[in-house]
Structures are given as structure tokens and as C-alpha cells.
Amino acid sequence: MDIKDAGSSLDSLVSSFNTRISEIQQLVVARNMYPASSVSDLSAIDSALKVLELQLHKIKIRMREETEAIPKAKKLIEASLRQQKKLQNLSSVVPSYVPDRVTKTTDDAIKCSNLEPSVEDSFVSLKLEEPAPKEKKSRISPPLFYINSEELNSVPPYMKQRITLEKVNAAINDMATYAEATSQLLTAPRKKLKENLVERAMELRDIAATETVKGKHFFLETDIRGPSLKLDNTGKAILTLLRHLGRISETRIGHHRVILLLRPH
Q1: Partners of 258 in the beta sheet?
Q2: Of the candidates 142, 144, 140, which has an alpha carbon nearest to the alpha carbon of residue 94?
Q3: Is the pLDDT at 116 greater than 80, yes or no?
Q4: Which residues contact 32 (CB under 8 A, 6 or more apart)?
Q5: What is the 3-state secondary structure (H, E, C) of the chain?
Q6: Residues 6 or more apart whose Cβ sits within 8 Å of residue 191
Q7: For residue 179, which of 118, 133, 217, 243 is within the disulfide window of CB 3.0 to 4.6 Å?
Q8: What is the largest CA-CA distance in the chain?
Q9: For residue 42, what pLDDT band results from cuts at 50, 70 and 90?
Q10: Of residues 161 and 247, more confidently modeled
Q11: Of the candidates 162, 213, 208, 154, the residue with the CA atom closest to the CA atom of residue 185
Q12: Of 225, 229, 206, which Cα lies nearest the Cα of 107?
């Protein structure tokens, strides 16, 4: 029940009591005049007053419950507003289109040959105390540091042009895929590479060993082939924007333009 409605009910009760009091006064006068007929009227008034008192008691209880619930309701509203703000911040960061990370190397696919078990392998169970081989360290996936709407709006208009948040974050996803393909070529054993990839893998390893690139995820400008990021005017504008926001840096090593993925400051 609303507080205003409860107040209106109380006003009605007070008015009813005043009316009843006036009637009782009149009945007292009438009783003195007609004592035999006044008993039944007074009993009816007493019953009506008891009903009104019960209603008033219920209204007080309801008003007390509503008053005690107000602080809880305020806390719930505040918590809901905080949660809404968090969700809005998250929705501004996450792009509307984020394809699943697919480990692919397109034309630079690594040929993982299935080695047949040797004769020695068939008798491994007979070697009771043979030490277990050491597990290889897992390769760290390239970072996916998407930008949010605030960062995009901070970019000068001449640099931003008509680039949208979705296009930029889709390009970031593409760059992570390129870097993943490069990482696979760097870590793959030479005997598992296709013949046409050996020279490229050796070249990438030389690039990765330089001081500028060492320990960083990178790819070459020639790896940019879509699906979202391409070497057209829009793609070049996106690369410029990402350099400005500190997501990538570029360096030239030999005849290659190398693009490094960076952690934002």
C-alpha cells in the first residue's frame, strides 16, 4: 500500500470516529429520554467501533512493514544501477562481432606428419624405470586487447574518419590470427614443415631473434589478407589508429615491415 493511500485511509477513519462520537453524544441524550430503546443502538455502535479499530490496527501494521522495506528497496535499486553501469561498460568494450579464435595459417599451414611408432616404442612397457619425458612449455597465445568507445572517441577526427568500433576490434582479431600463424612457424620442428615453408620459417626466426622483436608477438605486413583487415585505405587507417592507441608498433627488418602486438599502457 502506498504511504499516501494509507494517510488518506487514516483521515477517513478519523472522520468516521468523529461522526460516531457525535452520534454517541446524540444517543446519550436520547437514552436519557428513551432508556428502553437505547441499549440495542449502543451495542451496534460498539460493534462498529471494534471493526474500525481492527482496520486501523491493520493499516498501522502495513505502514510499518512498508516503512521497514524502504531501505531494502533503496539498496536493491542502487545495486541494480551499479550492475547496469558495469554491463554498459562491458558492452562498450566487447565488439558486436568477435569470431572464435581459429588457429589457421592459410597458405602457410604447417604439415604435422603422423610419425609411425618405432619398434622401440612397442616395447616401452618393458622398460620399468624409464623416466617420463619432460612436457613442453605451452605456447602463449597472442594478446587480444580490444579498444572501447572512449578510446575510439579520443582519437582525432582526421585519423578516425568513418572507422567504427566493430571494424577496429575485428581487425585486432585478425592480427592475433596472423601472429598465431607466425608463432606456429617459429615453434614447429623443421622436419614437420613443408619444404616451401622452411625458408620462410628460418627467416621469421631470424626476425624473432632481433632485439626489437625478441619476446613479442608479431607478424609481417605481407600476412595481412583479411577477412576484416586488408591493405586498403580503410585497413591502413585502422593500423594508424592502432599505432596511435598503443596497440601495435612497426619496425623494418631487412625488406620486411614487421608489426608488433603491444599491451596498452
Answers
A1: 220, 251
A2: 144
A3: no
A4: none
A5: CCHHHHHHHHHHHHHHHHHHHHHHHHHHHHHHHCCCCHHHHHHHHHHHHHHHHHHHHHHHHHHHHHHHHHHHHHHHHHHHHHHHHHHHHHHHHCCCCCCCCCCCCHHHCCCCCCCCCCCCHHHHHHCCCCCCCCCCCCCCCCCCCCCCHHHHHHCCHHHHCCCCHHHHHHHHHHHHHHHHHHHHHHHCCHHHCCHHHHHHHHHHHHHHCCCCCCCCCEEEHHHCCCCCCCCCHHHHHHHHHHHHCCCEEEEEECCEEEEEECCCC
A6: 113
A7: 217
A8: 128
A9: low
A10: 247
A11: 208
A12: 225
> Is it the case that residue 121 has pLDDT exceeding 50?
no
CA distance 31 to 14: 25
Find the mean pLDDT for residues 150-169: 91
Type of residue numbered 88? Q
pLDDT of residue 265: 73
547496469: which residue's cell? 84
CA–CA separation, 223 vs 204, rounded Å? Answer: 12
- Mean per-residue pLDDT over the chain, rounded: 78
Task: Report angle CA 43, 48, 54 to the nearest 5 degrees.
Answer: 130
Residue 193: pLDDT above 50? Answer: yes
